[in-house]
Amino acid sequence: MLVKTFGGAVYGVDAVTITVETSVENGKDYFLVGLPDSAVKESQFRIETAIKHLNYHWPRRKIVVNMSPADIRKEGSSYDLTIAVGILAGSEQIQNPEKVGEYIIMGEVSLDGTLQPIKGALPIAIQARKEKFKGIILPKQNAREAAIVNNLEVYGAETLTEVIEFLNGDKEIAPTVVDTRAEFMDNVLHSDLDFADVKGQENIKRAMEIAAAGGHNVILIGPPGAGKTMLAKRLPTILPPLTLPESLETTKIHSVSGKLPRNATLIYQRPFRSPHHTISDVALVGGGANPQPGEISLAHNGVLFLDELPEFKRTVLEVMRQPMEERRVTISRARTSVTYPASFMLIASMNP
After folding, report:
1. Which CATH superfamily groups domain 183-350?
2. What is the pLDDT of residues 234-265, one digit of tens each?
3. Which of 37, 40, 174, 239 has its Cβ near the most Cβ atoms within 10 Å?
């Protein structure tokens, strides 16, 4: 029996829908095609063990799983749940294969059948709504993050059993609902730090206020203990509050990089990033074999603080020149080119 399930792959800060076609037919062996990486190939062992542990049966037949479009590389363990549901539906252990196709289904499956959180739930949910899917099924830890997207049913599940029973109609899962605007307004002005904590230092406070008003970059020069780091950490508290579109854009970047806390929704405060001076140029601007956002993108709409500026390698500082001018960074590889936003205030400090 041929069944189609749907997942999502994240490229940059946007997502692409992946169709997972599963055929269970006469024969033997398991075949996974469609340019999967090692983590996706290893999913067979996780899924097979989880299915047996939950007292369902692994089909002793020929299983062919095709991940389409086949020219896009599929990476990570978040396709476990997509493939598992396809195999169970193809072997008729899930009775409603047409219901399976109404949802984007993503999640990492543990050996005991529990679901582990994934990266990029927010952009995947945005793409699901754009393509008119009824809803999205994913681990419970990601449900509030995905529920930021309105007009989309978001179901957070804790185990593979819950997903199977929900798709069979044996169990209801309450959809996760987040009132984005109300929650945003309640949290946007709360902060642990406050610029008002700084006593004295009137000249430097005046300079920082002017910089914050105009979005200017700042360099602080002073002896150790003068308060440079303390002032820099409190600068985001006098910047204008994030608007809802800015908050969504910032949250997407942190979601893609896996930096969102569990059960989080939006990022309400302007980001403050303070990388160590031993950071590499790739870690600062982004990159890698599978391009990920760097510190300058994680600081988007916020503050990037470089403490002990002269200690940073020259190549690291030089590579920031173009992103600071264009407010974005483009990472090009042989197979792909990814653009991340990088609009931030640069604060640097150094000793005289």
Report:
1. P-loop containing nucleotide triphosphate hydrolases (3.40.50.300)
2. 999 999 988 888 999 999 999 999 898 877 78
3. 40
